[in-house]
Amino acid sequence: MRVLGIDPGSRFCGFGVVEDAGGTRMRHLAHGVLSLGEERPIEERLQLLHEGLARELALHRPDIVAIEDVFHARNARSALVLGQARGVALLAAAQSGAKVRSFSPSTIKQAVTGTGRAEKEQVGRMVSVLLGVAFAGRLDATDALATAICGILRANDPQEAVARSPRGDWRVALARRFGK
Amino acid sequence: MRVLGIDPGSRFCGFGVVEDAGGTRMRHLAHGVLSLGEERPIEERLQLLHEGLARELALHRPDIVAIEDVFHARNARSALVLGQARGVALLAAAQSGAKVRSFSPSTIKQAVTGTGRAEKEQVGRMVSVLLGVAFAGRLDATDALATAICGILRANDPQEAVARSPRGDWRVALARRFGK
After folding, report:
1. Is B68 a catalytic residue?
2. How far is CA B73 from the centre of its chain?
C-alpha cells in the first residue's frame, strides 16, 4: 500500500510518498515542495498546484491520498485561502482515483509521536526515525510525510479496518436511518 | 463581452451568463444550479463541481469569470468548506483561459442596486430589471447572475479600465518596485 500525503498551502504545497513495508515498517519513496509563486494571482497559483499534484499522483500512483483536516485558523480569511488550496488538492486526489482520507492535526501528531500535542521538532524527528532516513536541514515536507505515515498506520489499524468494512458501513447506515 | 458569474458552494453551485449589449444594456444568456449531492464525500462533490463548471465554461466561452470574494464567515470551519469550493471554481475558470475577477459582496450589491447593503430580495428584483427577464419563483442563481452583472458593469467602468491598462499596470509595478 502506498500513501501520498499532502500539506496544501496557497504559496507552497508539501507532498510526501510512503509505502507500507509490513507491520509498522515503512519505506520513504519521495517528498518535495511545489512552489506556487507569491506574486501570481490566486487562480494561476491554484492551476500550478493542480498541475503539480496531478503530475506527482500520476508518477507515484498512491492507493490513498492523506490530507490534513483543518478546524481552526487565525481568521475566516486565512481559512478561506487555505480552503481554496485544500479544495484543489482534494480534486486532484479524487481525479487520480485514489481513496482520500482526512486526518486532524492532533490525529497525525498522535500517530507519529504518540501524543496529539507534540511540537513540530518532535514530529520531524519521529518522521526521520519511522522512515529510517536522516533528512538534512529544515524539511519543508515534514508535515506531508507525517500525514502520509498517519495514513499508513491508520489503514493498518484493526479498529479503522472494522469501521470501514462493508459490515461497519452497513451498521452506520442503519444507525443513521433509525436515528441511533 | 461575455461574463460567467459563479456563486460557489459545497452542496450547490449557482452560475449565470450575461453578455454586454452596449452601454449599460445586458443580455441574459443562461443560468443554472449544479447540484453536488449532500451525502457524497467532499472530494467527489468537488469533482462534480469541477466537471460541471468546465462543461458550462466550454459551452459559453466567457471572456471573464466573475466570482464573489468572501472576507467573513460564520466560523473558520465554514470558511474552509466554502474556500474548497471556491478554489475549484477558480481553477476551472483559470483552465478555461478566461480572465478572473473577484468582487466583494458589497461591490456586487452596489453594482446592481446602488447600495452595498441591499437585501437579497432587492438584488433579485434588480437582476430581473437589468436583464429584462421575469424569473418565476425563487431563483437559486440570483447571486451568480448579480456577480456576472457586476463583472460587466465594472469592466465597462472607465476607472476600472485605466487601472487595468498596460500603462496602469506599469505604474503599479514601478510604485511597488520603489516602495511608493
Report:
1. yes
2. 18
